[in-house]
Amino acid sequence: MTRYVPTALLLAGCLTALATAEIVAVQPVCCGKDQQLTNVMPTHETQAPAPIIVDDSTRPMAEQIRHDDVKKCGCTACTGATCSSASRCSSTCGPCCSSGCSSSNGIGFGSLFGHRGGLCSGTSCCQCMRCCPGWTAVGEVLFLSRTDAEDYALITDQNSSVELLNVGDFDFNYNGAPRLLLRYETADCIGFELGYIGLDSWNDAETRGVISPTLMSPGVAIPSSAPGTMFNAAYGSEFHSGEVNVRKRCNQCLTWVLGFRMIDFSDTLATQTIAPTVRDMFTIDADNHMYGFQLGFDSELINCTEQFHIDSIFRVGVLFNDADQTTNAPVFDGLPANTIASNVGASDNHTTFLGELGLRAVYELSNCISVGSGYHLIFLEGLALAPDQLAASSLAGAGSASLDTGGGILIHGASINATVRF
Fold first, then answer.
1. Mean pLDDT across the stretch 317-339?
2. What is the DSSP letter of 24?
3. Which residues contact 381 (CB under 8 A, 6 or more apart)?
4. Which of 54, 74, 81, 145 has its CA at a distance of 20 to 30 angstroms from the CA of residue 155?
């Protein structure tokens, strides 16, 4: 037992010294990637280090911006990339050299896919994040189609009741739609964004006719007036979307987005006879004026090389929908009142759900210009669609109308884009 006594006495002395020592707080030091921490044990005799004086006036402008951002982060040294040398408008001043920082202040999706060296593996809580102030403009062409409406028999054979044309038979081709984005990002990684997507029309027209076709208008069947009657039905839609967003970049791979979204969606179903005479029969116009808030993120999913990466966008929103529908039947103009109506309509307020998802493969041509292609989806649920109003209205008697807002559509298509940073 006696051989352990010196060791015990030494340990007791150390504990006593630690208990009476003055504890000096050490501020985290943010180092460059090539620097290493030199640990210095603080004691009560340690004097505070002399302040580091840097003459910013001798630095290039990009270096001054970076150095100012570093000082905001509380870092005392930094050798990270400057704005002019960053491959994209984001960089960090390296990992902090303090211990005990194992949590993350951002979501790094890139680590899930195991791509190169941690670029998208998240940002340590001790890391100084900074962004290069500047503008970004995105021009994109989306080749969009939309899903069909629900089934509803529109033209039948008067004698056999065989269905000749169903609303679901309309087929919407892919049409080009511009998507424009303009954003500004500050040195604090906060950005502001304006965006627009617009498509004037999706259109399809179908013609049906036999010896005695019948056109099914709201609440009234319109029989053919002569042998060989041909009915034509045209279905079209318009889509316009604008957004104003605030953006907050968490790390090089994730930017949160919160904004205000406005969407106009119009749907029209028009019918007429084209043989033996041309005459307008009835038209249904359904309009949806939506506005509300959206939340989402832009993320860099995979970074394969310095030039090539795969990005995604995601948005969800709850929109207030000021919707209405009007059914006009010129074919019944001039008939006695209360016998059959030629015009009915209804309006209502409703909630519409928005979901948006996009994937893009991007190639960096330079520090300022990139090009890419991908696929885009926009889902809207809670719409007033023109074919759905066929069952919600009636032209019989004095006429009546309500508004069906239970429709939903998926807008989707490929895209090509170009991005310029300045």
1. 92
2. -
3. 352, 353, 408
4. 145
Q: What is the mean pLDDT of residues 45-66?
A: 44
Helix (H), strand (E) at residue 357: strand 343-364
**How high is the pLDDT of residue 136?**
96
pLDDT at residue number 130:
57
Tokens linked to 264: 């106009």
Query: Do residues 286 and 324 lie in contact, with contact meaning Cβ atoms separated by under 8 Å?
Result: yes
- The SS3 call for residue 75 is coil
Report strand pairing: 175-185 vs 393-394: unpaired
Segment 30-40 mean pLDDT = 33
> What is the model's pTM?
0.73
| CA–CA distances in Å: residue 146 to residues 49, 155, 381, 411 | 66, 23, 13, 4
Contact 309, 295 (CB under 8 A): no
Q: Which of 327, 333, 372 is nearest to 345 (CA)?
A: 327
100: left (phi over 0), alpha (psi -120 to 50) or beta: left
Give all domains of the chain, ordered by start, each with its CATH number.
60-93 (no CATH), 134-421 (2.40.128.90)
Compute the distance between CA of residue 315 and CA of residue 51 in angstroms, rounded to an integer.
47
**DSSP assigned state of 73:** H
| Chain CA centroid to CA 359, Å | 11
Supply the pLDDT for residue 128.
46
